[in-house]
Structure formats: structure tokens, C-alpha cells
Amino acid sequence: MVIRLCRKLIREQQGSTVVFAGLTLLLLLTVAGLVVDGGTMYAAKSHLQKTANAAALSGAQELTGEQSDVEAIVDDILAQHNEESSLVGTKIDMKSQIRVQLQKKVTLGFSRLFGKESATVTAEAAAQILPMSVAAGAAPFGIDESIPLEYNRPYKLKVDSSGVEAGYFGILALGGPGAATYESNLKYGYQSEIKVGDIIDTQTGNIAGKTREGVRYRIDSDPYPPGDYTHRDSPRVILIPVYKPYNQRSNQLKQIEVTGFAYFYIMEPMSSKDTSITGMFIERTGTGYANPGTVEKGAFAIKLVE
Asked: Where is the Putative Flp pilus-assembly TadG-like N-terminal domain positioned along the sequence (predicted)?
């Protein structure tokens, strides 16, 4: 009798073990399925967010131009990421901010066993433009912040001391004085960063010849038609520090303090008699950083705000 009882208990324990093993396997499969679906949703969400960020940042590059250009760039970025159909809306405030909203349905795998075939993921990004306060690649010129700028109109940027009584005519000694340094900075841009608040020495002397050579180099290097300043790699577009006088001695301005940045498009070569560069100030975004309190003179940096 005792033997029969032991055999019965063993059979019952074996049955319980089988049931327990089955439940455990079902639980593991459920967790694995949820992990797979969760990973699918995470990947889709990540891709959608990256696309929204790229669309907002790229669209912000044209916030100083036409709204149609902003919309075209957003559409192009979405097409490159195969997310054209995910666009919910785009809010554009020219010269200020752009916001892009995306949404898409993600097909699920395991969750379909429980009646849930898809899930919706969303992404949103906003980028704004602010007056540039830190940048590299500036030309060795300066423009006084007190001078009002009229954009897209011819302007003579003084680069020679003739007819100047104050002893300073807008030339900066970026990286140190000397004609060779000046010429290199004019041709290729000063490679170190300049930021608002920096104190920079001015440069005097006759550098008209070097200026003509530098201007000619930029014009000859430009692959685009004259007057087309929309391309971001156009060498005719130069970044210029905006300043206020800092160290004035008698009639000599020895140093300036940077208060912002401006963009200047070189329109034509200099003749042997020119003492100014003919061009125009333009509004555009560029590579740099923005901080509050910077003087607005047409050069903007882009900042992702969401």
C-alpha cells in the first residue's frame, strides 16, 4: 500500500512539472515577443526622431529666405529618409523658428496574437535661428555696429586708409599683424573661433594689393554665376565680425570688441584704383553658435530647441 501511494505522488508531481514547464515556456515566449515588438517600435521611433531633427535643422537654414524654400528642403529630407507620408504638419515662422511633426504606424508581430496589429509612434522637432555669437572662418574685416545695414543693396567696404581721418578703416589683425597673415585670412578665412566679447587688434598699413589679390582669388574660385549667393559653399560670401570701438588712442583705434557677425557677398573684382570692396550685406545662416545678447547684423546660427 505504501508503495502504491508513493507511485501516485510521483505521477502527480510529474504532471505538475509538465504543466509548470509549459506555463514557463509560454511566459518566455510572451516576453520575447513583447521585446521584439518593443524593439521594432523603438527603432521606428528613433528613425522618425532623427528624421524630424534633420528636417527641422535643414529647413532652418532657409528661414532668412523664402518660405517655399524651407518647405522644399523639409520635403527633400523626408524623401531621403523615406518618411514623406509621415508628415503631420510643419509650422514655419520666417526669421525665427520651424517645427516639424511626424507620425507613422508600425506593424507589430507577436502582439497581433492579442488583436493588436500596429502601434503609432510620433516625433517632433523644432529649430530656431539666433544672431551668431561664435564662429570660425571670418575674413579680416570689421563693421562698426553703429552702421545700419541695408541688405541686398550695393555697399562699399572700405579696405584702404586713403581719405580716412580716424586712422582705422576696418581691417583686423586676426591671428597677428602682417600682410601675409592678412592675405591668408582673406583668401581662406581665419580658422580659429572668434566670439562675442573678444578683443581684437586692428591692422594699419597699405594692404590694398593683398586685398585685390584675395578678392580676385575668391571670385575666381566661385563656380556659381555672379549674383548667386544662395550656395553655402560660395567663396564670394565672407563672414565679417561686427564690433564696437574698444581701445581708442588719439585718432587711432587700436582694438575693437566683437559684438556680432555679418555676411558680405563680393559682387565684383577690385580695380587697381579701388579702395573698397563692392558687395552687399546679406542675411543667412551659417556654422556657428548663438548666445543671448548678440547684435543682429544678418548672420544667424541654428539651434535645435526640441
From this structure: 15-61
* Cβ-proximal residues to 234 (8 Å cutoff; 6+ apart), any chain: 222, 224, 228, 265
Cell representation of residue 296: 543682429
DSSP category for residue 287: S
Question: Taking the domains of the chain in order of start, what are their residue ranges?
Answer: 2-129, 133-304
Which set of grid coordinates corresponds to residue 278?
A: 563692392
3-state secondary structure (DSSP) of residue 101: strand
Q: How many CB atoms lie within 10 A of CB 14?
A: 10
Secondary structure in 3-state letters for 55-72: HHHHHHCCCCCCHHHHHH
* Pairwise CA distance, residues 59 & 7, whole Å: 78
Q: 202-250 pLDDT, tens per residue?
A: 887 777 888 999 999 999 999 999 999 999 899 999 999 999 999 887 7
